[in-house]
Design a protein that fits this description.
- The complex is a heterodimer of chains A (878) and B (112).
- Chain A has 878 residues and is of the alpha+beta class.
- In chain A, the strands form three sheets. In chain A, strands 1, 2, 3, 4, 5, 6, 7, 8, 9 and 10 form a ten-stranded mixed beta sheet that branches. Chain A has a six-stranded mixed beta barrel with strand order 13-14-19-16-18-17. Chain A has a four-stranded antiparallel beta sheet with strand order 12-20-11-21.
- Chain B has 112 residues and is an alpha+beta fold.
- In chain B, 56% of the residues lie in helices and 14% in strands.
- In chain B, a hairpin with a 5-residue loop joins β2 and β3.
- Classes of the chains: A alpha+beta (878), B alpha+beta (112).
- The interface between A and B is medium-sized, with 27 and 22 residues.
Chain lengths: 878, 112
Amino acid sequence: MARFFRKLSILFGRGRFQSELADEMRFHREQVEQEFIAAGMKPEASRYAAARRFGNATRINERSHEVVIFGFETLVQDLSFALRQLRKKPGFAATAVLILALGMGVSVGIFSFVDAALLEPLPYAEPNRLLSVDEMSAMFPHSNLSYEDYLDWKRFNRSFSSIDVYTGTGYLFRTPSGAEPVPAARVSDGFFRTLGVRPLLGRDFLPGEDKPGRAKIVMLSYGTWLKRFSGRRDVVGQTVSLSGEAYMVVGVLPREFAFAPRGNAEFWAPLLDLSGCEKRRSCHNLDGIGRLRDGVTMQAALDDMKAIAAQLEKQYPGSNQGQGASVIPLSEIIVGDVRPILLTLLGGAGLLLLIACVNVASLLLVRSESRKREIAVRGALGATRARLVRQFITEGMLLAAAGCAAGLGVANWMMTILGHLVPKDVAPRIPFLTGVGMNGHTLAFAGAVALVAAGVLSLTPILRLSFLEINDGLAEGGRNTAGRLWRRLGANLVVVELALAMVLLTGAGLLGRSFYRLLHVERGFDSSHLATVQVMAPENNYKTDSQQIGLYREIERRVAGLAGVQSVGLTSDLPVQCNCNTDWIRIVGKPFHGEHNEVNERDVSPNYLPTLKARLIRGRLFSEAEDKSKPRVIVINETLARKYFPGEDPIGQKVGTGDLAPEAMREIIGVVGDVREGALDAEIWPTEYQAINQVPYKYFAVAVRTAQDERTLLPVLVSTLRQIDPNLGVYGEITMTDQIDSTQSALLHRYSTWLVGGFAAMALVLGVVGLYGVIAYSVSQRTREFGVRMALGAQRSAVYRLVLNEAGRLIALGVVVGLACAVGAATLMRKVLFGVQAWDAGTLAVVALVLASAALLASYFPARRAASVSPTDALRAE
Amino acid sequence: MAKKPDLLPGTLDMLILKTLTRAPLHGYGIALSIKRLSDDVLTVEEGSLYPALQRLLLQGWVKAEWKMTETNRRARFYKLTAAGRKQLGVELSQFDQMIAAIGRVLKDAQEA
């Protein structure tokens, strides 16, 4: 302890320490001098003799000092030296830090998303015990649960401490400006307990409160509480009017609560009165979540549920044939779709980081080349190899630290930008966005990246050092061997850079191509000049079919009268949404064993398919006269015709439910070309179009084709609908083009294309600049050689060829290695590709061409410099 | 010129401490004293002396003080502390043990 303080006092009184030591030694020297004089030497000679005997005073001083200093003081020395070195070459330092900051910032930024999405996706208690519990059928790997099945599953299972269900719904919420449709969810009583979420205010639903006929109660999401109830605490106990019914608010959910599958739900109500669907075992509209009992594995739970499903299949063959069970982690439902994309992005960012490191490493190499003399001098003056190595490590660390600090800034910026890129209405469905930021994980990752970078940056010059005989640097002729060595190492690094750039460019190219394919996939309808809006007719005002059909006709009549409108149609679901809202059909006169022939069901007005400009292939479309008084009719799509009527004419054939109930029998009157009902990247499903006048529905969408700009039509459309009936819920107005662009598959593809494209552009620049550096350096080293060659009669073109040959070899090697790696990398990311193969020859060829020409261009400039060397100047320079 | 024998490694500290038992001395005095007492056999290099003095200071075995010499010059005098005296005892006994051990080995070697 005392030692430490003594050292400390010396550290702060360094000047005094030095001067005292000097005084002391001067005294010593003078005494020795006296000794020599006493022995009879001349004063002059004795001073020299004393100095000789004493040796190097500075060295003694240093050695004495070393005894008393802290270890870190040498570090401080190294650091200040490193800083001086970097300040001497500000261009180098700035470039290196900038490149590192880009590489680090991008990878840390992407990592923060990966961390939020994949490492901590669920903001619930013990999230890894939470599973998504669903049914499974031939067409759906995870299909909804039916209410009755849910009750049986809940009763018979032994694997879950609780199973609960949720389903989406919507209410018309009365506001001063009229009825506003709000998204909501209905859940079973234990839903929040299963998740492990406690209300911020009030209470949770009590067991049994979800049964039909119980009191109408509701919980508010935090955002709704703030927005619609100004965060008043006395809201608990008040009643709110939802779709004309009074619900009592019993609780408010905490701010951090988010449930992605129903991310935008504002109100959470118990299941209460069952919908028509929930009264039938064959109708599936619920999603299940379950919390595993302690000690039960997911596989055991799956086996358990499968056994129950098999039992139900036997018991209720009509509704349950082919209905299995699916048990997967809840996180899979929430982030399963984005995982491959995020991993692709992380991979891309990692490659970019690698290129950045390699680039800075080769910059360092060039610099260590120009510092050869300095190192040799320091070595000759007695710096040990260890001391030199330490200096390099310090410099590497310093660069990495500066790069990392700047990189954190870039990362922060990146997170903000990426966060803003997500459209507002999509954000609630991406729960992990709130978790993105500088947290412990992100900082740890940044630290690890910085360490690796520091390692690379300090190792490169050390490797270089071990190649170099320190003494060589002093000799003039040392250049040749060292130059060759450097060229070999530097050239290898450039090949790595070019290959990596090739991989990133290929990735970007493939993603861009699949994005293009996705947007240009055959849709079966004309999506331009199409405006759409969702309508919700209030229950109380539209009780009868005729009221509803009256509404349909009024809407079509009024909207058709708007300026520029060419036609108007209504549908239960707009295209490019989902393969969902399905129906099980049975073809009359075909063998049937209770299997579930799952088809999309769309209920449309007679004008709807013509409004979409769907292609009628056979038969006819609906007429306005076909309502409930007429026999039921349907139009089918080509895929349905092909699948269920191969080689037959489907027109006139009859389709019904599994039990061929007479009221549901319908005749096929027409076949239309496939309209893409599901996502852009999903396969086309068989689809039946029913006449909305025969099966009226209170929720529907209006599709309007206009000759003018469809975007300007949207506000007019909304106000017209409100004029028709102020009680209508009118929402979700969007043009078909925008709607397609904002579908999940388009969004994901667009983001990954842009991001990987950005990475690739940076990689291209870094790789090409790296190549330029190598060639330019090599040219500068060979100036004399070129001079001699030209003096001996070589043509300028020969010099060009010489340089370009060298560059060409590197480029070719980089491209070939890159091609191999690119195909490998693309195979890894084939999950995110659409309509394009990993080894897509066109993409690979274009990418190789782009890279090679950019690289050739970069080497053209040094080649020109080499060829314009004046032989006399070059020779005189030596 | 015949090469003078090097100091046995690790003995310099002990020699300095021992020299200081009689009276406080400056660096030159210490070097001179060791040289004289060893009949010119042992020479302390200045290059080793001053780092060693710093080491001893750091350990708290000696104390330094600026004083005037007999010739009226300013010099830094080193004085043995109590801890230094104790340390000297430790080092002396270790040294004796070592010398005895070396002696036994050499004697054995002669007899063999």
